[in-house]
Amino acid sequence: MTTDVASRVSELVEPLIKAHGADLYDVVHGGATLQVLVGGDVDLEDLADLTREISAVLDDADPMPDRYTLEVSTPGLERTLRTPKHYAGAVGERVKVKTKQGDVRRLDGVITDADDDGFVVDTGTEQRRLSYSDVERARTVFVWETTPKKGQAKQ
Predict the structure, then answer these.
(1) Which is nearest to 83 in space by CA: 19, 5, 8, 7?
(2) CA 62 – CA 75 distance, rounded (Å)
(3) pLDDT-based confidence at 72, cuts 50/70/90?
(4) In 3-state terms, the chain is what percent helix, strand and coil (to 5)?
(5) Helix pair 3-19, 44-61: axis angle to 10 deg
(6) Integer Cα distance of 88 and 77 in angstroms
(7) Were 51 and a residue from 8, 72, 108, 120 both cysteine, which residue would form a disulfide, CB within 3.0 to 4.6 Å?
(8) Residues 128-148: tens digit of each pLDDT
(9) Rounded CA gap, 110 and 121, in Å?
């Protein structure tokens, strides 16, 4: 998806999403699918309402040159990180990062800081600062905590 189309779709849908008390997390276009990812406290009813509203606005504005399928959803527990805002929102969360090059290509750890130029991952043995341009892909990792069975102490 070209930046111009992503920007245009973002401009069109962000006011609708904000009116529902949520935030636009991302707009992703791949193949014939246009994903609008909504952050914040939204439920299935909110997503259904937003889907109808977003679909109507996009039909009127026609920002996409070809046919597409619209998906409106949350980014999920494990989210792709693409923008500085995504990284800043993930401070304190566990992440997996694959770099484009360098001595260490894969990092697992917790984001401890993020700014306009890059972010810091604490791997448990080191703190590594990365520039966004060094990242091939990054995503948050949800850690499932086990619940002790009745009568057992938490370990």
Answers:
(1) 7
(2) 24
(3) very high
(4) 30, 35, 40
(5) 130
(6) 16
(7) 72
(8) 999 999 999 999 999 888 777
(9) 5
